[in-house]
Design a protein that fits this description.
By secondary structure, this protein is mainly beta. 0% of the residues lie in helices and 69% in strands. The chain has an 8-stranded antiparallel barrel. The two termini are 16 Å apart.
Amino acid sequence: MSSQASGAFSVKLSPLPPYNGDEGASLGRMAIDKHFHGALEATSKGEMLTAGSVVKGSAGYVAIERVSGTLAGRSGTFVLQHCATMNRGVPQLAITVIPDSGTGALTGLSGTMGIIIADGQHTYTFDWQIAPPQ
């Protein structure tokens, strides 16, 4: 049975030295620090790799973040994988729980997350389920 969590979150992105600093590479690296509120009360730490384009509004990023806290009262950790592109201003984003990354009461967690940024505010929706133990 699937469930949905939603709420607000804050995020702090801090630049890190890029792996490739060649002129024109347009590559970046950021540390991620988030605080989730709502049915997911948690913090996360992660890392993001970015790539820009000479075309305004076109870019991409990948990221991994480890989430620690409670989801609908269940305590544990899990890892999210992000894959996103912006094609001339049109976004495409996929955020997925890495299989078998759940710990504690979140063991067996799977799901996908959506992010909405409107009027400077960040919110999430998280469709999730926990598989019964095998």
